[in-house]
Design goal:
The protein contains 7 helices and 2 strands, in the order H-H-H-H-E-E-H-H-H. With 141 residues, the chain is mostly helical.
């Protein structure tokens, strides 16, 4: 379903840098870059940046601190914000990102909490999850 009739312009270079950090798995750096971009961004780019920031923070919490519920909450909030921006915005394939976020969030929901799984099993699970983490895909124009 076409929700976003506007053409998807290419992302600005500073947003590309944040996306590169995100896709490398450096979620903390990506969240910092996105936060700075969000201060000066105009709508509708500000909505995209805000949602991407939530995703980056959520994944940072998951992989750096093992957070489960906070990650689920942040990814869910990001998905709600991105819903209105489908199928693409700022040169980003929002449709694909939403689908990957939904699948990843479901996977986290189905996982055991750290104290239920044991510390070693939990760390092994996070190692595997990192390889399945969503990526931000740019649409080639």
């Amino acid at each position: 379903m076409q929700r976003n009739p506007q053409p998807s312009a290419a992302p600005p270079p500073t947003l590309r840098e944040a996306i590169d950090s995100f896709n490398r798995g450096d979620y903390f750096a990506a969240s910092e870059q996105l936060e700075m971009l969000g201060y000066d961004a105009a709508q509708p780019l500000k909505d995209v940046i805000g949602a991407l920031h939530r995703v980056a923070v959520g994944l940072h919490l998951r992989f750096s601190r093992g957070g489960r519920q906070a990650t689920i909450n942040l990814l869910s909030q990001a998905m709600m914000a991105l819903e209105e921006l489908r199928p693409s915005r700022a040169g980003i394939d929002i449709e694909r990102l939403c689908n990957e976020l939904a699948a990843y969030t479901d996977e986290i929901r189905a996982s055991q909490r750290q104290y239920e799984a044991g510390a070693l099993r939990h760390k092994a699970r996070l190692f595997i999850e990192r390889r399945r983490a969503p990526k931000i895909v740019l649409i080639e124009t």
